[in-house]
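In this section we walk through a basic example: taking a raw amino acid sequence and producing a predicted 3D structure, encoded as discrete structure tokens. The instruction is simple. Fold the sequence below.
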Amino acid sequence: MSLRTTNIEKLDGGSFDVFIVGTGINGAVSAAVLAGRGASVAVIDQGDFGSFTSQESSNLVWGGFKYLENYELGLVRKLCLSRNRLIKSYPSNIKEIRFLAALDESSPFAPALASLGTLAYWGIGSFATKPPRHLSAKKIEEAEPVINTDSVRGGIEYSDAYLKDNDSRFVFSFVRSAIKAGATAANYVELKRAERIDGTWHAHMVDRETGREFTATAKVIINAAGPFIDGLNQSWNLRTDHRIVYSKGIHLVVPQLTENERVLAFFDDTQRLFYVIPMGKRSVIGTTDNRVDDPNTEVNDDDRNFLLGQINARLDLDQPLTTDDIIAERCGVRPLVVDNDGDDQTDVDWTSLSRKHEIERDAALKVVSIFGGKLTDCLNVGEEVAEEIEALGIALEPDDGEWYGEPPEEMRDEFYREARLMHLDDLRTRPDIEPLSDRLWRRYGQRAFAMLEAIRVDPSMGEDIMDSADYLRVELHQAAHTEMITRLEDFMRRRSKIELVVPESEYRDSAGLREIAEILFEDQADAKLNAYFAESAVSAP
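The resulting token sequence is shown next.
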């Protein structure tokens, strides 16, 4: 019986302290902290874990330098401290990275003023990163020859952080933590309705893979539905003080534009920031900020042409980027929090809104609603949710901090010792590839020990399963049993980032992709492959 099937069996007829709807970063971190503190927790998502807003981020962990413009000093302080905490708690996954901002005529700030801002930002963040510096146009050209400095007045360099792997895999790490602590979790399970009967919530669900319907009960519900939070609250006749508006953002993944592992920042022609962000041997260009009324969005020709035009005007490339250079696209909405003082959203200046979060508790209905937020703020969200759950009468154990972070340093040292003894890193000789020991530890932590043993027993387990993907055969076997992969896209887009960094033409008809499907789904491999390419054809630009 698969892990997913086992969890659905536990959901069917189960009784829980807390029932969580949604497994974006807010739902996942809530499940981890509550299960880690002794509550009985069920968490579901109508799609895959981290498959909506939380898979479309910039992969950055940052304190919100741009929020200084609106004097949101308290929010910036809170986010910077959370960033520092995440860097410390996830030393293999979250790394400090330098941002280099080139300021030209489109910049709303002079270089001198921006430099003062970086000093303030550094101080607000408790001086936990490398110090910022002011750059002349000449220094920018020396540091990043790819930048066209013809109209650059100067620039700044400062530090924030980024995820080495993708955002949705980081979200899934909290789901794994929750399951390890005893939570029941299932993807592709849709909440059809929830009703409160005699002081208890009855959640009616359907397995979207099989059509099976079932019910569970809970004392408290957490609405972590992200962009869909308002509709869910309305279905319960729940009035809240806040609501959500949507800002659409896109990213374009293209071949690597600079070998330096830093983020390049520019102001576009509308005086909005956009970035060139490293993703291994690729670069990610984005993001845009456009008001939309529907959370279901896609990249259109105007989006592509705008971003490509902006970056081509600011980089000195041998050949301008065109749509033929786009390897993958990311598109999602930011759920931004506003006061719920009416149903009309047209009066909201969304461009001035930050990525703050708000958490509301309804004591009568026993509902906790999480509005807004961002990946950087996730630990704060988890701890605040735990406080609200306790206020609703659910007893929790003291917070020992075990629900987040990487395994202890001693365990990491032991893994690297064993990896050296078996010469794991010697299996790869290319100078531009990450050592296998680093990769396995970052992705799997304690579970990586079993991978070492599997490679010892069968050296073929240490082979890349797809030439251009840097993914070992042993990782597929691990994923098949422990990562609740239900559709091929779950692996290609979220547990890994193959779909983001490898052109479809390189893997579509490859033997590696077929083996991936066979390992993950066995006799269902053909059906899963057909479904995957049918879906990708629908979503292709």
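Looking at the output, two observations stand out. The chain has 18 helices and 18 strands. The chain has a mean pLDDT of 94. In the next section we compare this with other chains.
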